[in-house]
Amino acid sequence: MAPSLCLRFLFLCSVILVHQLPLTARAGDPDILTDFILPHGADPSQINGTFFTYTGLLSGLAAADPGKFAVSKAGAAEFPAVLGQSVSYAALAYGPGAVNPPHIHPRASELLLVTQGTLLVGLVDAARNGTVYAQALQAGDMFVFPKGMVHWQYNAGGSGEARAFSAFGGASPGTISLPFMLFETGIDDDVLEKSFRTDRDTVEELKRDLQQASPSPSSAAVSIRGAAPLSLAAATLLCFGAAFFFAL
């Protein structure tokens, strides 16, 4: 086979392989053929500025417990005008010692801006042998979390509340919380024990601590209770281990 034909054949094979990858690996907002997407059955002549306006972002945090982590979202579910626009937003509040546990956004990158207090943030680069990139952020600092990478935020301040805003490169970025995904979805205890090389008592303790929290996919602010310090540290370490397993 001539060299040029070989190159063409290899190129064709690579294109086919890329298109056979799992859809989640290439997930993101679809391209749309109109400037924006109207609600089903809506009359275009009746659309006005109200459709492009969302006023519930900060009010969503008003009822949150100031001692916990809370998030108010403005994604496609809460703000339909962003559907197809590859953008969404969130307001986040962190009580003293509160943590946004290690999690993943499978369909969008995140750009975090700290507006109050101090946050310790970080991410795990599983493609580089689990390298951890961490940084202490002050008000006015920004940090980017690439799509699909395990990351977290932690208010290590002694007494003050921390606040931040996050912009996402997708209308429905999705959130997969590793502690809840691993310990609150019915995975058999034996599987967890062997996967993390721990004992049943530790697994059960982690489950009990996580049951104190009650995240919800609703448009209202999600508030998460902090776990006991030792259990939280154990959960974080186990989540790092999970990140390495997922990368295999």
Automatic annotation (TrEMBL):
Keywords: Apoplast, Glycoprotein, Manganese, Metal-binding, Secreted, Signal
Subcellular location: Secreted, Extracellular space, Apoplast
Predominant place of localization: secreted
Signal peptide per UniProt: 1-27
Binding site for Mn(2+): H103, H105, E110, H151
The keyword Nucleotide-binding is annotated on this UniProt entry: no
Annotated Gene Ontology cellular component terms: apoplast
Binding site for oxalate: N100, H105, E110
Superkingdom classification of source: Eukaryota
Keyword Signal: yes
Gene Ontology molecular-function annotations: manganese ion binding
Residue intervals of the Cupin type-1 domain: 59-204
Function, as annotated: May play a role in plant defense. Probably has no oxalate oxidase activity even if the active site is conserved.
Assembly notes: Oligomer (believed to be a pentamer but probably hexamer).
Family to which this protein belongs: Belongs to the germin family.
Protein name per the record: Germin-like protein
Organism: Eragrostis curvula
